Amino acid sequence: MSLERYSSALEDHSARMMTGKPPSSNQRPTQRSASNAPAPRTQNNTENLSAAQKLYRRKLLSAKESAVKAQLSALSVDNNTINLVISQAEAELEYRRMRNRAHQAKHKLKQKLKLKDLEKSSVRLRE
Known about the structure:
Blueprint: H1 3-19, H2 43-126
């Protein structure tokens, strides 16, 4: 889940918690009767709302921090994977170089042996 989607989902949830209804515009507005009308605000309600808003902001900030940390962790894993792939490629390249050197050394040795055999056969022919 991307940080933007996570943040908007968290904001929607907090708006639902504060107002008691979902903020989406596709829902019908509800009609209130006099019996279930909201109570008038008092100083205590305002203080509670302010405390609730502070708590919401702290939780939202904490959630955003967690999301960012998770993304950084994922990037770190990606970086480690990239470094591992690079290390493997370097090791394979070094192996191929060593194999090529060994092949060249074998080829040179065969040439030297052929040359010695030719020299021995030429010495025998002279005798």
